[in-house]
Amino acid sequence: MIPALRDLLDVLFASLWQDAIIGFCTAALLYVCARRLNAATRNLVLQTALVAMIVVPVVTTLPHLARGAVMESVHGGAVVGATSGGDSAGSALGVRRIDVALSDRVVVLVGAAWFAGALVFLLRILAGMAQLLRILRTSRRLAHRGGTQIYASAALRVPVAFGLLQPAIVVPADIVGAGGDELECVLLHELAHVRRHDAWLHTFERIFHALLFFNPAVTLLLQSAAFEREAACDDWAVAHSDDAPTYTRSLALLAVRTGGGGEMPAVCGAMGFGHAIINRIERLQDLRRNGSLLLSPYALGGFSFMLISIALTLRLIAPAVAFAPNMPVAQPTGGVSNCTRDAMVTYSAQPPAPLPDGRVVVRVTVSPTGTATAATITKSSGNATLDRVAVKIAKENGYAPAMRNCKPVAGTYLFMLNTVGVK
Predict the structure, then answer these.
(1) Judging by DSSP bridges, how do beta strands 359-366 and 399-400 pair with one another?
(2) Residue 325: partners with Cβ closer than 8 Å, 6 or more residues away
């Protein structure tokens, strides 16, 4: 459990600075192309950046945990070694990984704090879904339009489109009572959400936010994506109503009815809705805006190329700045100065022979007494027998504990069993 938590913290801490880079580059691109891109393209760019914020820290961090410069020793017919946690790509660039030692207790506390925070946000999503279902049960059915059922409810102040499998639109009862152009414009906007499958996208956004709730770059990107999603639906509604002044006026009336904002369940609606509706009105009044409904393939292709370039660059420099526990290097028993050293393996266990060919990497946690308290496979050989032998050897080996300030402390390092080509 502890090694898995350490890997999780590596990814979470790496996401802080890597997502900040992705977010900054995305914002810079959208700023430069502000007048050229329509809202639908901008929203898709932000959605792609959000996926990159999840994927890039994983693919640039986890591989470094199972690779490193290996110091090997032939023992009992097999090659046994401990790895340093460095990386060949990083070494080629002349960078070294910054290792921050964390005790198992701190790792558990930080992991528990992340889990508790993520659980709170996930429960908010479930609470929002339950609230929507309660509202739907008490709503009055109005009509069926474009494959979507429309309801009226006095429990909402703003219209809502939701439903993953069976889309539905719930409109505030006072807007239904007013009728006329305002109601038609509201329905067009919500039908645009249904047509774009925004309920699915928004649910995935809320889940991503729950997992990375501590990351300000993710929060800012979600706010921008929410606004662009609403703007894209505005463009769709204006195009199908062919009456931009009436639609803009209906938005203004909606802002007056809700006091500039509105309450809505956590699973739906734009983040920062109260300010967004005013900004949407100002955008619709801008005659130079790009109101096209078509996506720009050139912009999406250029942005994808930019993300790939960022990911490859981060893949090279990630060992230099990734947050991780100390990954000790096997050293000779002499020559340790200032009472500080990483955990050392003494190679006391003898691997049985013969063994099938393969290479296994095992993460070993060593207590202050030099005892292996945990051993888990981080890179399997593909052979279950060899994997079991590697774990057994790793647990039975003798260890010298890590030293900090002349006191033995818990340490973690990678242990490798390599039988490829060994006779």
Answers:
(1) unpaired
(2) 6, 99, 100, 101, 102, 107, 412
Task: Residue count of the chain, please give it.
Answer: 423
Tokens coding 19: 């997502």
The helix or strand, by DSSP H or E, that contains position 70, with its residue range, turns out to be strand 70-75
Name the DSSP letter for residue 401.
P
CA distances from 54 to 28, 41, 60, 107, 306 (A): 20, 20, 11, 21, 16
**Cis peptide bond N-terminal to 354, omega within 30:** yes
The residue that leads in pLDDT, 204 or 260, is 204
- pLDDT tens-digit map of 185-206: 888 888 999 988 888 888 888 9
Token pair of 389 as six digits:
């032998």
Q: Does residue 218 contact residue 209 with C-beta atoms inside 8 Å?
A: yes
Which of 344, 347, 413 lies closest to 75, judged by CA?
Answer: 347
* Residue 117 DSSP one-character state: H
The span from the CA of 422 to the CA of 420, in Å, is 6
d(CA 56, CA 308): 9
Q: What is the share, in percent, of the chain residues with pLDDT greater than 70?
A: 76
Give the tens place of pLDDT for each residue, 385-396: 888 888 888 888
Strand order in the sheet with 372-379: 70-75, 78-83, 411-418, 359-366, 372-379
d(CA 199, CA 132): 12
Backbone angles phi, psi at 115, to 5 degrees: -60, -40
In this structure, are residues 97 and 324 in contact, taking their beta carbons and an 8 Å threshold? yes
Strand order in the sheet with 168-172: 140-145, 148-153, 168-172, 160-162
Cα pseudo-dihedral 144, 150, 151, 152, rounded to 10:
-110
> Considering just the CA atoms, what is the radius of gyration of the chain in Å?
28
User: Mind giving me the DSSP string for 205-267?
Assistant: HHHHHHHTTT-HHHHHHHHHHHHHHHHHHHHHHHHHHT-HHHHHHHHHHHHHHHTT-----TT
CATH 3.30.2420 maps onto the chain at 344-418
Q: What confidence score (pLDDT) does residue 261 get?
A: 44
Average pLDDT over residues 45-72: 72
Class of domain 344-418 as given by CATH: alpha beta
pLDDT at 410 over 60: yes
